[in-house]
Amino acid sequence: FFPRMEQQRGLLLLLLGLQLLMMGALLCQNHHLHGFTSSLRFLTQDKPEVSSPGIPRQDVYSNISQIHHVDIRREDLPNCPIVSPPPLPLLGGPLKVMIQENLTMEQVVEKNPLVELGGQYQPPNCWTWHHTAIVVPYYGQAQHLQHLLFHLHPFLQRQQLHYAIYVVNQVNNTAFNRGKLRNVGSWEAMQEEDWDCVFFHDVNLLPEDNRNLYICDIFSAHVSVAIDKFNYKMWMPSYLGGVFALRPVHYLKINGFPNTYWDRDREDNDIAARLELNGMLLSRPHLLFGRYHMLEDGLDHSHEQSPKSPGFLAEIQSRWQQDGANSLGYTLLSKELQPLYTNLTVDITVPAPGAPVPS
């Protein structure tokens, strides 16, 4: 009996090893080396380190000026290298977060000459493998938006991505509804491009390490795991606020985000429950890579949430299939292609069936 059990366990381990090797080979073939390593993050536990010894912090604009158009037809461009070679080491590690006083949008535009109208960018000298939409829920924090654009554009260019930034601007002075704005941004972005990855990004968080790649692997990803305000430690295991990434197929599988949380703190627990109910694993970067600076006076109050209460999972299970992407109601008031982003002005007080409207 016992030898038979040992034999079965050995066969299971062999099959698991073969599956991991096949997955790694497939992802390597598609130039998703980072995605493969990211997909295995759930197998390891992050250590609460708070610094990268011996690695100096780099200006986020360092070497960016060396990226330029080449005299080659677009269709003849080579594929972007997985790791940028010298003399253009774009992914050097920790970044300086510079909060310039009296920063203007004109100055940010001048610093980013390769960004096209609507906040679109693709490497001018190579074909990229990665296509990422950045969705930013917005509630009138103009100074935060300028600092985010100043920092995020070169951060993304260093990663050789094709990307666009969509700012979803809520009007009518109703309570802030981050989940519904995320749904709007995702829907409008997918009408424009066949994005393979969507990053949902709070306006008051600036990434501090360019090894935190804004690409999607085979799992959903929560990447803002180490915020300076919380001493670069995870606030709580269930925390999913800040910066969160989904493939479109994963977004549809969990029915997007809830539309019914108006200025409340349970949205992130709701998303965690949706992932759990759908049997979806979550990827997180190492705490050294997923570091962020939080701008002061942001609207992100999700750190105040309490752990899931008894029955919370059952509550979400009873309604997640009716509250989300398939019940989204809004009016697109305008779509403006700004030099550094696409501005979507929306009225989200349009009710979905059975959804509460803020007073």
UniProtKB/TrEMBL annotation:
Pfam families: Glyco_transf_7C, Glyco_transf_7N. Residues 87-217 form the Galactosyltransferase N-terminal domain. It is an enzyme of class 2 (transferase). InterPro entries: Galactosyl_T, Galactosyl_T_C, Galactosyl_T_N, Nucleotide-diphossugar_trans. One of its GO terms (molecular function) is metal ion binding. Coiled coil: none annotated. It is found in: Golgi apparatus membrane. Residues 1-28 form the signal peptide. One of its GO terms (cellular component) is Golgi cisterna membrane. Its EC number is 2.4.1.-. Its main location: Golgi. The keyword Signal applies. It is a single-pass type II membrane protein. Its cofactor is Mn(2+). Belongs to the glycosyltransferase 7 family. This is Beta-1,4-galactosyltransferase.
